[in-house]
Every structure is written in C-alpha cells, then in structure tokens.
Design goal:
The protein is mainly alpha-helical. Helix content is 86%, strand content 0%.
Length: 217
C-alpha cells in the first residue's frame, strides 16, 4: 500500500484527472487510512488554533474550570474526528452505490472508499481555513460587542461554508463517479443526496441521545 500524498494538491483543482491516475492501484484500506490522517490533522490544527486564540479567555475562568473546559474541548475534537471518518465512509458507500445504479455499472466498493478517502483533503482544508477565519474575526467582535459586527462575521463564515460545500461536492462527487466509471454529474448528485440522508440520520440520532441525556439529568 502506497499512500499518494503527492497527489493531494492536484485533487483540489483537477480531481477527475487525478483520481483516474491513482484509481488502478487504490484500495479501500488505503482510503480509510488517508482519511483518518487528513481529518485528524485538520481537526488537531484547528484545535491548536482555537486554543491559542481563546486560551487567555479560558485562563480567566480559573485553573479548575479552565481545565474542565480544555478536557471537554479535546474530547469533543476526538469525537468529531471519529464521527467525521464514519460519516465520510458511509456517504462514500451510499453515494457510490447510487452512482453505480444510476449509471447501470457494477458498484465498486473498494475504489469508492479508496478514492473518497483521498477526497477528504477538502475536509482538512475547510476545517483549518474555518478555524483561521474564526480566530481572526471573532475575538474582535467579542471585544466590540456589536451586533452588526457579529452579523458580518456570521455572514462571512456562511459564505465560506457555501463555497466549500460546492467545492466539496465537486471533489467528492467526482471521486465516486470515477470509482464507478460514471459521469461526473451523476457522482455529484449522488453524493449530495447521500450526504443529506446521512446528515439527517446523524441529526436524529444525536438529537435522541441529547433528549435521553436531558431526561437522565
């Protein structure tokens, strides 16, 4: 198994050509491993940026409370990493199956997971960039306490989120399309539908867990 880290930058701007280049040798376990590496790296860098930015504010809470918040934040980061990897793989399988069914080709589970694993480079870039934007803009808003400034920040974050959604649909939809010998547009539509379905399931499960937790309290 040879991890093709050298191809990651190319995936961001010429995904189909890059996926077709690595497709013959890519394996599912390779995709899983590289997804874990990239998502973990992005999350840890984001955690470091947030800690460096808001660490002084945590210090004002007192050592004990600051320690509790820090541990909770780190545990949330670990949970997010695990959930992100699982969701990525589930969406890859569902979108790959949908794409193959639409194209009337054989569903290639191995290549779908393998190529989608490489597509998680877009998730890493988004996580880090969002952390940088928040770290650069939010502290100033907190100092000002201005509603208009807060609205502007949320607007910028929203716009960046939409742009990354479109970008990631292209990157990850192309991955399942190439994996299953389908047209790019079919992969993109299948990825979008699969992403919505999985997101709804995750939201329902998390909401149910929260309700159970509140009931226990």
């Amino acid at each position: 198994m040879d991890l093709r880290f050298d191809q990651l930058p190319h995936i961001l701007y010429k995904p189909r050509e890059t996926y077709e280049k690595i497709r013959p040798d890519v394996e599912a376990k390779e995709g899983i491993l590289i997804a874990v590496i990239l998502i973990t790296l992005g999350s840890l860098v984001s955690y470091g940026i947030m800690t460096a930015t808001f660490g002084e504010m945590l210090g004002e809470l007192g050592p004990e409370l600051a320690g509790v918040v820090a541990v909770f934040s780190l545990s949330q980061t670990v949970f997010t990493i695990a959930l992100s990897v699982i969701v990525l793989l589930v969406v890859a399988l569902l979108a790959g199956w949908m794409t193959a069914s639409w194209e009337k080709t054989e569903f290639n589970r191995e290549k779908s997971i393998g190529l989608v694993g490489y597509s998680s480079v877009i998730d890493m870039v988004q996580t880090i960039l969002m952390a940088i934007v928040i770290a650069a803009m939010v502290p100033g808003v907190m100092v000002e306490g201005s509603v208009s400034a807060a609205t502007s920040v949320f607007g910028v974050i929203g716009i960046i989120g939409i742009l990354f959604l479109i970008w990631s649909l292209w990157i990850q939809g192309t991955a399942v399309a190439v994996a299953n010998n389908a047209e790019t547009v079919k992969g993109i539509v299948s990825w979008f539908v699969a992403l919505i379905l999985v997101a709804l399931v995750v939201a329902l499960v998390m909401g149910g867990i929260s309700l159970v937790g509140m009931g226990a309290i």
